[in-house]
Amino acid sequence: MVNWLVSLPKPVGIMACNDDRSQHVSDACQAANISVPNNVAIIGVDNDEMICCLANPGRALDQFERNAKSWFRFDAKAIETCLEAGGIEFRDLDHVAFYWDVRKGVWSFLFHVLRHFPKSLAYFDHQPGIYGRFRSLPKLIRKKYGWNGEFHFLDHHRNHIASSFWPSPFPDAAALTVDGTGEWETSVMARVHGDGRIEILRSSRYPHSVGKLWETVTQYLGFRPNSGEGKVMGLAPYGRPTFVDDFRRILESDGEGRIRLDLSYFDFHYGRSRKYSKKFIERFGPAREPESEMQERFEDVAYALQTVTEERLLEMAHVLHGLTDCPRLAMAGGVSRKT
Ligand SMILES: [Fe+2]
To answer: 97: which strand partners?
Structure first.
């Protein structure tokens, strides 16, 4: 593929049959030192399932899943279907909230890039475009629907907490969210008071992220990150505890509910498409090719990941219980669904 890409007249656009294939094209461009998207622009045509939920505080009204072209794309169809399900028009809305605080996200992104400069320059191949898309949402919505209400960019982990607490029957709760990354935080412990006020108690920060560890291992095992994590969960029970101690060292805890990754095993925090480092391969062997034969050591890696994730999250829950003395726990974030 590298030779073929080099032979193409530039600039050129390539439409890949799916996102996996577009990732291969992107990797080949990187190997051939071809600038993406300046010389080769790539479009993949599928992605994760997008889950839409229309809810009133305290009571979920309707929930459905549909395929979305991209998790970050402004998907008017999904919004319209949601509103239709609730029997409301866009003009009935006073407020629209987005699950990400773009300003906070940009500052933490720049700080991270500077901290890991120059290796982190790979981020500029894709990340700024995402912030631009987020930023353009209010304008797109106002233009499309002739809407004049208030638009809010909200803190990601506070949104996660709200998503688990408000549909619950709890009068107040301890809240734990664990995911890939918010604008800055990757896990948050909080207390939600009876009046709905969210008090953040403790957090872990990017790149120290259980979710990023899952994305990395998912890719290493030959599945698509942010999509194939369920397959890794399914693989875990077939494994043996060969690598559990390794993963306890890779995903450390400070004993107070914060986690730390041993970053020497990773490359994702430099913005590279291959998320694991050379050291990861040296310890666990070459990565599995997508669709290739499954081997025992891959099952053992999945087992270790699942086991240590459960250990760390249970520890977080214990610490949070100690901090809040609250018997009600609201959990949210992608990693919370893995335990
Ligand atoms: Fe999240």
So the answer is: 152
